[in-house]
Amino acid sequence: SVNIAAEEMEKAGLTPRLMIDFSHANSRKQHEKQLEVGRDVAGQIARGDRRIIGAMIESHLVGGRQDLAPGKPLTYGQSITDACLAWEDSVPLLEQLAEAVRERRRH
User: Fold this and answer.
1) C-alpha span between 78 and 96 (Å, rounded)
2) Can you list the alpha helix ranges (DSSP code H) found in the chain?
3) With contact defined as beta carbons under 8 Å apart, do 18 and 5 qualify?
């Protein structure tokens, strides 16, 4: 959680400034859950949490992932590593995060 990470940073004598990875453990390796994580983080930002300074989102043109296999054509714009959000899902999420930052700045 943001609170636990911030507390650990404070114990180490650091100012809590957190970049949150929407993927991996936070989404339990299910790339679509990044949207849920993003909504939650946007809410925290909009409510004024200044410890959150950024986000990492697994995003690509085409959602999901594909295997790299000899002789098999690749889908342009789709990851061969981690599964990603599709661009059409990423744009609204980025807009929601941008609006959350604007809201935080009003406070």
Assistant:
1) 24
2) 2-11, 34-46, 87-106
3) yes
Contact 21, 56 (CB under 8 A): yes
> Pairing between strand 62-65 and 78-79?
parallel
- Where are the domains positioned within the chain? 2-60+87-106
Helix (H, G, I), strand (E, B) or coil at 71: coil
- Cβ neighbors of 57 (< 8 A, separation 6 or more) are 22, 23, 34, 38, 85, 90, 93, 94
Q: What is the pTM of this model?
A: 0.89
HSE on the CB side for 27, CA within 13 Å?
A: 24
What's the pLDDT tens digit per position in 36-58? 999 999 999 999 999 999 999 99
